[in-house]
Every structure is written in structure tokens, then in C-alpha cells.
């Protein structure tokens, strides 16, 4: 991968700390400007983070499908590498982390981690996180021109987050058990 998209660990840490501080600042500021239950603000930012994470989980495998169709080393391949890296690094991973942190806070604060539906949801979110990890490896392989999967593989993986999301939403809204 080109060095222009790589980031030093110190820069990643600084960017992560700025992101956390910004998030905390937004939550505190929102609470000061419109004082309602803090859990409502946490829930709102959790939903925003989940939407951002899901958008990436749904879009990245589609980029992989297109990346499989271009020649290694071509301008298009290099463009796809940058797109994949930036989507993962700047949107998906931070959104996943925020989703987890706020989601666990809500699970404890609102439900004390009780309810079969909640346990099922958390298990499926672990599965989504596993898909996220698999995609991290794929971004790395594509970045090193070592992808060994064809477009059919990525088309199937394009559906996995969708199916998990459907079941998670049903568990959260319907709470069947």
C-alpha cells in the first residue's frame, strides 16, 4: 500500500484520543444545551455509530467485488486500496468501537445485561465484529496485492452483515425472548 495512506501508531493514538474527547464533548455539550436523560443522548450516539458501522460493513465487500475485477498495480487498483483503507480506518473501526462502548453501557444501564434477546443480540454483534475483523484482513491483503478470493466470495460476504443486522433489529424491537 502506498505510504500516503499509512499512519504512524502515534498519529493513530492521537487521532483516537481526539475522537474520544470529541465524542465525550458532544455528549456533555448536548446534555448541557438540552438537559434530558443522559441515556437518551447515549442511545442517540449509539444509533448513529451503528448506522455508520453498518454502512461500512455493507459497502466494503462491494468495493472488494469491484477490486477483484481490476489488474493488480493499475490506477484503479491503487484507488480501491485507498478507498478500502480509509473506509476501514476512518469510519468503520471508530464506529464499531463507539457502538460497542455505548451499547455495553446501555445494556448495563437499561437492562443490567438481563434478557435472552439481549444475550442473542450481543452474540450477533460479536459475529458482526468477526466479519469486521475478517474485512480488516482482506483490506490488508488487497493492500499488499495478495487477495486470493474471487468476486463471488465477496458477493456472498456482502450479504452476511445484512442478515445479521436483520436478526439484531428484530431482537431489539420485538424482544421475542
Radius of gyration of CA atoms, rounded to a whole number: 18 Å
Cα end-to-end separation: 47 Å
Helix and strand content put the structural class at mainly alpha
Work out the helix count.
5
Q: Count all strands and give the number.
A: 0
The dominant shape is: globular
Helix content: over 70%
Low-pLDDT stretches are: none
Mean pLDDT: 91
Helix-strand topology string: HHHHH
Largest sheet: none
User: What is the percentage of strand-forming residues?
Assistant: under 5%
Can you describe what's shown?
It contains 5 helices and no strands. The longest helix has 37 residues, at 75-111. Helix 2 packs parallel to helix 4 (116-143) and helix 3 packs antiparallel against helix 4 (116-143). The termini are far apart. With 177 residues, it is mainly alpha-helical.
